[in-house]
Amino acid sequence: MYMMAMANDKVKVIITDAQKKVRIPTGLRMLVRRACIAVLREENFKGNAEVSVTFVDNEEIRSMNRKFRNIDAATDVLSFPLGENGEYDLNPATGAKLLGDVVISLERARDQAEEFGHSLEREVCYLSVHSMLHLLGYDHMEPREKAEMRMKEETVMTRIGLERI
Description:
Blueprint: E1 2-4, E2 10-17, H1 28-42, E3 49-56, H2 58-69, E4 77-81, E5 97-105, H3 106-116, H4 120-135, H5 143-159
Parallel strand pairs: 2-3, 3-5
Antiparallel strand pairs: 1-2, 4-5
């Protein structure tokens, strides 16, 4: 499904549910698409883009975290960027820039939503925004980078109506 991002640019957000532990609330997929598009708008991203978002359980994300990061623990979200320094592979059929893959543990997101006292929708949206920023090259290893990324996350969350209460 293509959705408008800016002007004539289109964004395709492919969402796959590869888990059976947490029921996906009505409207969550649309909210994730809105979050992804809002990040691209905020970053003035130009051109058509594609991103893949996959929902998994804790067991699967732990396996992926172990395989790709050598960390044997479940985490909330993993980002797999396909671009570097603003250069992206293109989908040969559409010409869209392939941003990468986002993998979210819905089990972990549910638990964190309860812990932080907000909805699963807000938590998954936040994880989507966070991960999209990673796909665009942002990181949070240094304090300055972390502060900049956090500010961008909150700006996008506010724009889509999910500001911190």
